[in-house]
Every structure is written in structure tokens, then in C-alpha cells.
Design a protein that fits this description.
The chain contains 14 helices and two strands. By secondary structure, it is an all-alpha fold. It has a domain of 174 residues. A two-stranded antiparallel sheet has the order 1-2. Strand 1 and strand 2 form a beta hairpin.
Length: 332
């Protein structure tokens, strides 16, 4: 499309993203879904019309969110959705080698590592921002989680002391997981929206780049080693500082967030193993559809199963063991 139409594309994509986000903040279950798919128009604009369209669309989206909502919500929208969508799209459409006639495009591995890096940065930014509140990171998370739990259990109304105990137990279990879980879901949504956008662009016209071979995704060793070190550190700090307050509490929340972000990469690698093992099977579409449905429905256990497979793949090499690992070695 001629460059003259890029501003129009950016305007439509930006306002579509902002509308999904603002409407989704209404509070319903469907609202959460709308918030999570809000980056989709940015990915479509970038993968079809380039980085300029994606960047301008992101700017329009944030401006619209400021007008329709408030500065805080627009800031969250920008940091959690728009900036990662632009960065990942820009990275995806930049060749990493070859020449003009035969470019080499970043593969699923490189894009997944970039997604994980974005997630680690977002955990750090979110933790620092929340720590500036009066209650600090642990206190703010616990107070908001307590309010949510009390609304679910009705602890202050008709359920008596047992409900209060349930609330305390729920908060004690989930408090350090909240930040990481939220950002892990956001990262998984980015991966899904990017893949969906590439599929839509490829189906309707010639995309700027071919779709990466997802079954070739192979993470290096460092995420698995880092995950083990993070898990050991969190368990050690939790054993020493069971109340999870102060500096130790802050570190537990942040390191747990880092660990859950890495788990998103393991989840994607686990799904990539399934893609590779079922390649060539006539029933592959049904197997994949059932597996993805299990991941979505049986949360968090469905995702944990494939994340465990992806983590084990770093040493078990399932694809080589089943004779489908030759292509995986060529992934960039």
C-alpha cells in the first residue's frame, strides 16, 4: 500500500486498540479478554505495513486512552501493551542476515527470547513503580488481594471466622505470585496476538516476512539455569523471611515475577515440541486444538504441564529422541 495510506492505517489500528482496552476495563470477564487482545491491531499494522505504521498506531492508541480514561491507565496501556507490541513487531520484520533477494528473518527462538526480555523488564518496571506507593510492593499487593478475596468469600459478612481464615490463607499463598502471574498472562497474550496477526496478514495478502516455524523453537540453556537459581533463591528467602515484608518481601515478589516470565518461554517451547512431534500427522489440527483448549481451560495446570515439558526439553531433547530434531538445529 502506498505510504500515503499509512497514517490512515495507523489511525484505525490505534483507535481500535484503545477502544478494546478502554471498553475492556469495564470489569467483566469478557472485559479481561478485550484488554488482552488490544495489541492485535498494532501487530497487524506492523506486520503488514511496517514499523512506522505500528509506532504511529501505538501513539494514537495511547493518546486515545488518555482522553477516554486517565493518565495512569494510559501509562499501563503504553508500557504493558503498546510498547512491547511495537518492539516485537519491529524486531520480527527486520532481517538478521542474507541479502535483499534472500533475507534471513528472525525465527521463533529469537522472537521468544525477545518476548522474555520484555517480560523481565516489565517485572522490574512494575515492581519499582508499585514500590513507590505508601505500602510498598508487598503491602500494596497484599491489600488489594485481600480486598479481592474478601469480595469473593464475603469474609466480613455472613460467612464467619472460617471465611476470614480462608482469605488469610489465600493471600498468604498468592501474594508473591500476583505480579508475575499478571505479567505472564500479558506476555502469553502478546505471543498469541503476534501469531494471530501473522496468520491474518498471511491469509489475506503478502506479508512483510514469512511465518516463523514454531516447531523449531529451541531455547538456549540460560533460561532453565536462571529459573533454577531464581526458584532456589525465592525458596531460601521465603524460609528465612516468612512474613514477606521489607526488602526480603520485595525481592521475593520480583524474583518470583522473573521466574514466571521465564515460564512463559518454557510454555511456548513445550507447545513447540508438540508441534514438532505431530508434524505430518493427519490428526495434527485436532491434537493441537485440543491441547491449546486444555491450556486455556485448565488453568493454571494446563499451562504448567506444557511449561514443564518445555523446561525438560532443555536437557531431555524430546525432538531428537523421536527423530524430529534435525530442523530444530537450524532455528535462529
Amino acid at each position: 500500500m502506498p505510504g500515503l495510506y499509512i497514517p490512515l492505517v495507523a489511525l484505525v489500528a490505534g483507535f481500535s486498540s484503545a477502544a478494546l482496552y478502554v471498553v475492556g476495563l469495564g470489569g467483566s470477564v469478557w472485559g479481561v479478554f478485550l484488554v488482552l487482545i488490544s495489541p492485535l491491531p498494532i501487530y497487524i499494522a506492523g506486520l503488514k505495513w511496517g514499523s512506522l505504521a505500528a509506532g504511529a498506531a501505538g501513539v494514537f492508541a495511547v493518546m486515545a486512552a488518555v482522553v477516554a480514561g486517565d493518565l495512569l491507565l494510559a501509562s499501563v496501556f503504553s508500557v504493558a501493551f503498546m510498547m512491547p507490541a511495537f518492539f516485537l513487531t519491529h524486531l520480527a520484520i527486520r532481517p538478521v542476515g542474507g541479502d535483499g533477494d534472500d533475507p534471513v528473518w528472525p525465527g521463533a527462538t529469537r522472537l521468544t527470547l525477545a518476548l522474555m526480555a520484555v517480560g523481565l523488564l516489565e517485572v522490574a518496571v512494575a515492581a519499582l513503580a508499585i514500590s513507590m506507593t505508601e505500602a510498598g510492593l508487598p503491602g500494596t499487593v497484599r491489600s488489594n488481594l485481600s480486598l479481592l478475596a474478601e469480595s469473593l468469600y464475603g469474609a466480613r459478612s455472613s460467612h464467619g471466622p472460617d471465611a476470614v481464615t480462608d482469605v488469610v490463607d489465600l493471600v498468604d499463598f498468592w501474594d508473591s505470585l500476583v505480579l508475575g502471574c499478571i505479567l505472564a498472562v500479558v506476555l502469553a497474550a502478546h505471543a498469541a496476538m503476534g501469531a494471530l496477526a501473522q496468520g491474518l496478514v498471511s491469509g489475506g495478502a503478502t506479508p512483510l516476512r514469512p511465518s516463523p516455524a514454531f516447531g523449531r523453537l529451541r531455547l538456549p540453556a540460560w533460561p532453565s539455569v536462571a529459573a533454577l537459581l531464581l526458584a532456589a533463591t525465592v525458596l531460601g528467602l521465603d524460609a528465612l523471611e516468612g512474613d514477606r515484608v521489607g526488602t526480603a518481601g520485595f525481592l521475593i515478589h520480583v524474583l518470583t515475577g522473573f521466574l514466571l516470565v521465564l515460564c512463559v518461554g518454557f510454555l511456548l517451547q513445550g507447545l513447540a515440541v508438540l508441534h514438532a512431534l505431530t508434524r505430518g500427522m493427519g490428526a495434527q489440527p485436532f491434537i493441537l486444538a485440543g491441547s491449546y483448549m486444555a491450556v486455556l481451560v485448565f488453568q493454571p495446570f494446563g499451562a504448567m504441564v506444557f511449561a514443564a515439558v518445555g523446561f525438560a526439553e532443555c536437557w531431555a531433547n524430546f525432538r531428537e529422541r523421536f527423530g524430529v530434531g534435525d530442523d530444530a538445529a537450524t532455528e535462529r
